[in-house]
Design brief:
About 0% of the residues lie in helices and about 55% in strands. By secondary structure, the chain is mostly beta strands.
Amino acid sequence: MRVVSGIVVDANSATMPGVTVFLKDLKSKNIRSFTSDAQGNYRFTQVNMAQDHELWAEKDGKKSVVKTVSSWDTRKEFVQELKLK
């Protein structure tokens, strides 16, 4: 299992609390969500390393670029900044 975590920022790189971050398992199509905390941080635990996932953030009609968390990536801690545009 792995942890997927990071921070959500706006176009000016300011941290953004209250943003919904999504993590989608590409095999099962299950989607988990997390609302970023007061410092803009998000964290998903117990992420299956054998599956590919998509990671993105959305708030008020703005969306980050969709990032891939690959099963080929062997890191136990996957850290990704998500920028809303």
